[in-house]
Amino acid sequence: MTDKQIKELTHFIQNGQSSGREVRRAQAVLFLDKEVKLETIKKFTLYQRRQIYQLREQYLKEGLKALDDKRKGQPKKLLTKKQLQAITITLKTKIPTNLNYSCPFWTTSVLADWIEKEFKVKYKSKTSLYLIFKSAKFTYHKPGRIYEKQDPQEVVKWQKETKPKIERAWQDEETIILAEDEMILSTQTTFQKIWLPEGQYPKVEISNTRKNRSVYGFLNLKTSREQAFKTTWQNMYETVKILKKIRKIYPKKKLLLFWDGAGWHRGKEVQKFIEKDGKIETIYFPRYAPEENPQEHVWKNGRDQVTHNKFIEDIDQATDEFIDYLNKTNFPYSLLGFSAILSC
Question: pTM value?
Answer without folding.
Answer: 0.55
